[in-house]
Amino acid sequence: MGFFSIPFLPLLLVFITVSPLYVFAELKKYEWTISQRALDPDCFGTSYPALVVNGQFPGPAIRVTEGDDVEIKVHNECNEPTSIHFHGIRQYGSVESDGVPDVTQKAILPGHSYTYQFRAIGQIGTYFYHAHVGTQDDTVQGAFIIDSIDESIVNPSELILPKDNPQFRNANTSTYTHHEGPYGYDDEFTIELTEWWHQPPLLRADYYLGTQYTFDPAADSILLNGVTVFQNATVEERQNCPNHTTIDVLPNSTYRLRLIGGTTFHTYGFAIKDHELTIIEVDGELIEAYTTDHLEISPGQRFSVLIHTSAMEETSEDEDDDEPIFAIATSYRYRANATGHTDNGFGYLQYVLPSSQPDDDKSRSHPLDARSNIPSSHSLQKRAEVDDEHDDGKLDDDTADVSAAASPDDGKLDDDTGDVSAAASPDDDVDEDDPDAVDEAKRNAKLVRHPKPPKPTHMDFPSIPDPGNSRDWIWPNLKPLYGSALLEGEPDRTLKMRSWAITLPDNTTRYLINGRLAPMISDMQESQHSYLEAKLEYDGFEPIVGTYPIQLNETVDIVLQNVQSGQNCVYHPWHTHGHSHYIIATGEGEYIHELDKDKRNYPHSILRDVSPVYPGQVDPNTQGCGWTKIRLHADNPGLWAVHCHITAHMLLGKMFLLEEAVEYMHAYRMYM
């Protein structure tokens, strides 16, 4: 979608109210409770306390339509402050709902509530929400989908699919029941990638901010839709856990897969055995169809891809075990001490015939509605057969367990209090203080988790190439569906943000931005600070409130400079709040404005809200080791965070604030 000019934003809001396209817009109201419960999503055998939304992990999926007003009341029933960020939602006229504590709101204290209100303006596609305090985003997160309001207007005969993909050549586009923009598909499903540590999230946050921090420990498990099986889990442990996510699909059909990077640390490769992936959306923006055999997904990033299932012969009832099943796999990327497939970040795509589907299946699957239906013993055997690429199980340096610093029993809950929510309906309330209720839930769980096993016909995993020392993946090849004049001409200003880690005198570690510690700012949304009154330092920094002011309707280029702080140069995915942006260029070493200001190696950049800074060659004089230049349009008055989406790095200060036209902020506020 294009950018809006702020002087016309009030007219835009009036248009949205009266336009025929928005006559069916609704007020969608939700009520969430953030609470603590014990989770063991990877069959490790030990549950850890973590925060969840309405008792669910991942949290309940939200689905609204373009133009809808959204109201979400959040009750904090845990023992620590919290807040919710709606990732990728630009919050036009509703900066107070962006969810960044000490910037756009006060954190929600225990026992208190906060209501988020915003309108889905000019955005469609795949988003998600997550907590923005500490490491709570490990588990406080869920899908947020915005459907196009003009879906019924598109002529089915105008739907297109990539002509260079042989899988789609025989597709009959006129029969598709769903479409967005020019793309048609029969159904859709969502996969949300998350990471899980064998340690309470709160202890890990204390480690990052404490004096013992030396490196970022890798996750013990990678979850697909909240479940997996830890590679060292015993057969007995596997018999009483959700197992791997399996997605049921019909043969000879086209599906839209929405992939959400809910991970908080690593970037991963993603692929489905024997199925090409045709990218049609990145970070909520439709693009020209591009077919690849794998994806590269960073924390905070989202994709929509079309996949086509092949034809399948019908079988008799006594042969229904022959339904094909294909591995969904993830791989390590840009990780110093690990390559190849992850140890347990996988699931399955299973072909089923219409006659074998449960009677209550609906024609349109709900987001995150994946069934975990491969029993434990079968998964154990299959994993042993399909994955022979791993080593003897020795831990790499960056996978060391930091929980050993705590008492062995710290934060660990009794196995009998493990998570039973995976088997219960999202609407079922299980009183965990009632032993009979817990036992009943567990009996129900066994009924749900152990249906008849499918017979695998594709035993090997998809190949996912290692990126090696390459930069930019396929990003420069992707093209926007709609062009933008913003990419033409020169910027009004260029800000260079150079970030590196240091050890402070108290032996804690913090990131600096241009040599400064990130300020802690309280209630900045009430600030009337004006750029016109500010005295800026050499790099555009305003020292009184600690922001980088930008003016209304400016075109702003931001250079995100990577700096080697330890042994390795590290991959960093940066996220812009309040805006999507374009990558203009990337480069090695140190960005030198006089030399690099006109560089363009993204010939047709796409709009996005997460962009990587790839590790690159190190400048021996400055230790600069790669940079990415992004461009945004200052059309959204407010206080907006820009930060690395590796949660640990954000906590350590890898974040800065854009103070954008705050003199207009109250005038354009949508909700008073």
Describe the structure in your own words.
There is one protein chain. The protein is mainly beta and 672 residues long. The chain folds into two domains: 9-449, Immunoglobulin-like, CATH 2.60.40.420; 483-664, Cupredoxins -  blue copper proteins (Immunoglobulin-like), CATH 2.60.40. It is built from seven helices and 33 strands. It has helices at residues 9-18, 201-209, 235-238, 376-386, 435-449, 593-596, 647-651, and strands at residues 27-39, 48-53, 62-65, 69-76, 84-87, 113-119, 125-131, 141-147, 178-180, 183-185, 187-196, 221-224, 246-249, 254-261, 267-272, 277-282, 285-292, 295-297, 302-308, 325-333, 341-351, 493-503, 509-513, 516-517, 548-550, 555-563, 572-576, 581-587, 607-608, 610-613, 624-633, 638-644, 655-660. The strands form seven sheets. The chain has a seven-stranded mixed beta sheet, with no helix packed on it. A hairpin with a 2-residue loop joins strand 9 (178-180) and strand 10.
Spatial order of strands in the largest sheet? 24-23-22-26-31-28-29
Number of helices: 7
How many discrete structural domains? 2
Backbone structural class: mainly beta
User: Given the C-alpha coordinates, what overall shape results?
Assistant: globular
Q: Tally the beta strands.
A: 33
Unreliable stretches (pLDDT < 50, length at least 5) are 1-8, 14-18, 152-157, 161-173, 315-320, 358-458
Strand content bin: 25-35%
- Rg computed from alpha carbons, rounded to a whole number of angstroms: 24 Å
Summed over residues and divided by their number, the pLDDT gives a mean of: 80
Span between N and C termini?
27 Å
CATH superfamily of the largest domain: Cupredoxins -  blue copper proteins
- As a percent range, the share of helical residues equals under 10%
Highest-level CATH class of the largest domain? Mainly Beta
Described by its quaternary structure, the protein is: single chain
Q: Which CATH architecture of the largest domain would you pick?
A: Sandwich
